[in-house]
Amino acid sequence: MSAIGGALPRLERTGRVTQLHVLRSEWTKLMSVRSTRWSLLAAVLLTIGLPLLFAGVTTSHWGSMAPHERADRHPLDIALAGVNVSQLAIAVLGVLVITAEYSTGMIRSTMIAVPKRLPVLWAKMIVYALVAFVLMIPSVLIAFVGSQAILNRHHILQISFSHPGVARSVIGGAVYLMLVGIFAYAIGAITRNTAGGIATFAGIFFVIPPLMNILPTSWNNAISPYLPSEAGRQIFSLTQGAHSLSPAAGGALFVGYCAAGLALSAILLVTRDT
Amino acid sequence: MTKVYGEKRAVDDLTFTVKPGIVTGFLGPNGSGKSTTMRLVLGLDRPTGGDVTVNGKHYCEHPAPLHEVGALLEARSIHTGRSARNHLLALARTHGVSRRRVDELIDLVGLHDVARKRAGKFSLGMGQRLGIASALLGDPHTLLLDEPVNGLDPEGIHWIRNLLRSLAAEGRTVFVSSHLMSEMAVTADHLIVIGRGKLIADTSVDEFVRRASGLVVHVRTPDATRLSELVTKDGVHVTSTEPNVLEIEGLTPEQVGELAAGHRIVLHGLSERQASLEEAFMHLTRDDVEFKALEREQEAAA
Question: Residue B261 belongs to what domain range?
Fold first, then answer.
């Protein structure tokens, strides 16, 4: 530690707290923590790597596969296989972006700098959603082009990007991941606790949906399509099941869940003590 | 203002004003409500009753809050995975404050060599310096520092004292909490003393010392237990640091001597000395602390 001394230099110019300033601050925060970079790298690698791996395995086993097995394979299922896994990395980071401030005490510094609080909630959400989207768009495109190129070596499971619904599904994969990030972020903002936030997300996305199978089929069919995970999934599904919502309706509903979560976090943020 | 957490009245109908141009000490035993008061001023917690303003406005209504108040809280308020420099940079950006200013402050508090290390690896003293740097970032009119000398080495303590005095001399409002009377005696001009969330004194340091520090009678006797029982009454406080020695506050040596003679108690020594500042402070806040200990016992029994 070097010597300390000198008087406090005067500030040449005092800026005000604006939404744009808070956005820049949140960008600095997101990019200056190591765990962010690792989680985002993991999401990118999973989104690209798993489809390439599945394409390779499918190609090498194609000769020994039964006709009904071959019929079950769909090129988009392979191209977007990574989305199902990388959503976990995106969700965990979405929770952490806000709960890490509470667990480390950083939230006090943040709220002293921005005592109106809400600009922080919006800035964090916007920065994280944009970062997730900007990284996931090329990832899903590379996954699609790459998996198609591998499958093309055996001239199997080819589908054109201009085929109806394909472009929407591939881009939809990135949109879905961004929305999962926002949904998880809202849960983190409500729970203010990393373990609680991740557990809540996992409960909603991975525990409740299979539980629906215990219900009578008619109930299951009536409820399941409206679960956040099922509604959101339609954004990147090429074809819809008999009871599923359309991609537009499912997407709109999932956006609605995100908005509701954010609204609740906003109310709690301004009313709770920090 | 008042702040109630569940059953506990952390701050109880507390009213005071802090003036610019001087260092005001905020003194109270641990758990007396100092930190809560600071959190209420900064809007981190909302008062249950009453109101608190900074320069005529609620803290959150100022367009540039960091230019209004620079705060150092007692609790750590730093993301452990971020470097000191990035921490300050993130705070600076909320107000559009330049990167150059961040580097100036890092030099000022002496963190130049460790500015790019993760804050989680910082010692208590280094964390404290980083907290002081963030408090000074916005060139604030008012400084609100909760136990700033905690964990600082003697050089650091000396530096912060001089810094606080020079900031006050520039016309800023400086409000510093401490549970150490001796620290406040050398740093502060004015004192706000609280105990159990209530205001005990709002006075200059000189006046506080004059009023609070009484005399202590030092007695050496083989019959300490009996003498202790005899002198104990309202307004008299007896402590015993070693066998056969009593320290009595609230009576003169004459009164103690005559009382002992009247009950045929042998005295081996009888002298008086000035109470220290710490003793004066403890004398003022003792009832509050003791009452709280009693309350805790009752709670445990219930």
Answer: 212-301
* Residue A82 binned pLDDT confidence (cut-offs 50, 70, 90): very high
Percent of residues, chain B, with pLDDT higher than 90? 52
CB contact under 8 Å between A14 and B163, yes or no, is: no
Q: What is the pLDDT of residues B282-300, one digit of tens each?
A: 777 766 555 555 555 555 5
The answer to whether residues A169 and A203 touch, using CB atoms and an 8 Å cutoff, is no
Using the structure block, give the residue that is written with the tokens 């509050």: B288
State the average pLDDT over residues B88-108: 95
Per-residue pLDDT tens for A143-172?
A: 999 999 999 998 999 999 999 999 999 999
Contact A1 B108 (CB under 8 A): no
**Cα gap B146→B73, rounded to integer Å:** 5
pLDDT in tens, A206-239: 999 999 999 999 999 999 999 999 999 999 999 9
- Distance (Å, whole) CA B128 – CA B59: 23
Give the residue from chain A lying closest to B101, CA to CA.
Answer: A11
Assess whether B77 and B188 both reside in one domain. Answer: yes
Does residue B118 sit in the same domain as residue B52? yes
Residue B269 in tokens:
């020594």
The predicted structure's pLDDT at residue A126:
98
Alpha carbons B261 and A269: distance in angstroms, whole number? 69
Name the minimum distance, in Å, from the CA of B173 to any CA of chain A: 15
Long-range contacts, stretch A52-59, CB < 8 angstroms, 24+ apart: A52/A143, A52/A146, A52/A147, A52/A150, A54/A78, A54/A81, A54/A147, A55/A146, A55/A147, A55/A148, A55/A150, A55/A151, A56/A150, A58/A151, A58/A156, A58/A157, A59/A150, A59/A151, A59/A153, A59/A154, A59/A156
One domain for residues B75 and B111: yes
The model's pTM: 0.88
Of B179, B210, B241, the one marking the end of a domain is B210
Q: Is residue A21 part of a domain?
A: no
Of A10, A112, A273, the CB nearest to B139: A10
Last residue of a domain, one of B166, B184, B210: B210
| Ordered DSSP codes for B84-130 | HHHHHHHHHHTTT--HHHHHHHHHHTT-GGGTTSBGGG--HHHHHHH
pLDDT recorded at residue B294: 52
How distant, in Å, are the alpha carbons of A68, B217, B219, B221, B241 from that of B269?
Answer: 106, 10, 5, 7, 15
Domain range for A71 is: 30-271
Phi, psi of B212 (to 5 degrees): -85, -35
Task: Examine the domain organization and report whether B174 and B221 are in the same domain.
Answer: no
Alpha-carbon gap: B56 to the closest alpha carbon of chain A (Å): 16
Alpha helices in A8-80 (DSSP H): 19-31, 34-61, 67-72, 75-79
DSSP state for residue A225 in the 8-state scheme: G
B271 and B189 assigned to the same domain: no
Closest residue in B to A28 (Cα) is B90
Question: Are A17 and B155 in contact (CB < 8 Å)?
Answer: no
- Asked whether A264 and A190 are in contact (CB, 8 A), the reply is yes
- Say if residue B181 is in the same domain as residue B281: no
Band (pLDDT 50/70/90 cuts) for residue B212 is low
